[in-house]
Amino acid sequence: MRDSRPQSLETLLSETLFENAATASKSPLQTIQRHAIALLKLNRTVLSLLPVQLRPWCRVANYRKQILVLEAGNASWKTRLYYEIPILLSTLRCEILPSLSSIDIRINPSLMVNSRNNGQNVEKISAKKLNNDNRDLPMRQLSHESAETLMVLAERCPEKLKRKLERLAALAGESTSTAKRRD
Questions:
Q1: 62-103 confidence digits (pLDDT tens)
Q2: What is the Cβ-side half-sphere exposure of residue 28, based on CA atoms within 13 angstroms?
Q3: Domain of life here (predicted)?
Q4: Do the domain assignments include residue 87?
Q5: Distance in Å from the first CA to the final CA of the chain
Q6: Element holding 41 (H helix, E strand)
Q7: Which residue range forms the structural domain that includes residue 108?
Q8: In which order are the strands placed within the sheet that holds 102-107?
Q9: What is the pLDDT at residue 104?
């Protein structure tokens, strides 16, 4: 059983600063430091195994009793992370954690706040890639027949929808990817 009683800071400092190496390696602060360093290394490894879109929204929270605890920013990222568990388990068992028995995933909403900037960078990269992919697609155009159908439909619609349908019909003959929205 763990000794969780409060300890004097002087006692902890004296153990780490003035004791010999054998005793100092057993100090609570050094144990925590080693565990933190191991978790950072494990986090880098796990993130390298995850898809790029998932990396900003996940991290290693802890490893104890042969269970790896991961955090996800919200329920949707948690679900996405569940799909990666078989690959993570097999790879981590082979490479660094042969005693790993399972992976537990928990939601940590603060991860969404902290990773918001990272997520925006990933979204910008994805959007740039998407725009590059659209260059290879043929340009789509609204035919004049479709525009006439939209105008007939607009006559029977409420005013707000009528304006939108008329604006859409005005795009007949123009490429849809170069059309500018007039708001």
A1: 999 999 999 999 999 999 999 999 999 999 999 888 999 999
A2: 13
A3: Bacteria
A4: yes
A5: 67
A6: helix 28-49
A7: 31-116
A8: 58-64, 67-72, 102-107
A9: 94
